[in-house]
Amino acid sequence: MSTSRRTFLGLTAAATAGLSIPLLGPAPATASGAEPAAPAGQFAVGVRQFNWSRGVRSLLTKVFYPTPGAPGGAPIPNAPLADGVFPVAEWSHGMYGNSDSYASQTHAIASAGFICPAPSFSDNTNLGSVYGGEWSRDVSEVITRTLALNGSTGGP
Q1: Does residue 26 sit within a domain?
Q2: Which residues share a beta bridge with 115?
Q3: What are the φ and ψ backbone dihedral angles of 134, each rounded to 5 degrees?
């Protein structure tokens, strides 16, 4: 079985040369030509649930994201995405947990302006899956599928 790996070629050379290279594609153009600023305020939080899989492994994933509206309160199911460009910050729970175990963290990450996919590993009591790399491959699949939502019709 082979696994693929994400590689950011030239990142070290670009960083040492002082160049700014966006990792997930070109940054949106701004009137002044400057890099877009990080969000300064808080957002309301939206959430969508996806029943993805990797082979026979279930990847039930809740994706939390910034949505228009007043910050605070419970995440709004299937809410629209707020205007802007938001980075992805994946959240993984620990042993015996699930994505709901860390709701205060995932909601805070999304409220701060990040897309936060949070999978619930179906074998959350199996230490062998962690050491065997299953969870790492699951996380890679969740990130790949989350990034693919950016180009999907009707996706967040």
Answers
A1: no
A2: 88
A3: -60, -45
In a domain, 58, yes or no: yes
Instruction: Give tens-digit pLDDT for 31-83.
Output: 555 666 667 789 999 999 999 988 888 888 999 999 999 998 899 999 999 98
Q: What is the pTM of this model?
A: 0.71
Q: Please give the structure tokens belonging to residue 21.
A: 């290279």
Q: Please say whether the dihedral angle defined by the alpha carbons of residues 135, 137, 140 and 144, taken in this order, is positive or negative.
A: negative
| Residue 137 CA from chain centroid, whole number | 15
Contact partners, residue 36, CB within 8 Å, separation at least 6: 27, 28, 30, 85
Q: Which domain holds residue 50?
A: 44-151
- Residue 135 falls within a domain, yes or no? yes
Contact by Cβ (8 Å): 119, 99: yes
Counted domains in the chain: 1
Residue 97 is assigned to a structural domain of this protein: yes
Q: What is the pLDDT of residues 91-143, one digit of tens each?
A: 887 666 677 877 888 999 999 999 999 998 776 656 656 656 777 888 889 99
User: Tens digit of pLDDT for each residue in 56-67?
Assistant: 888 889 999 999
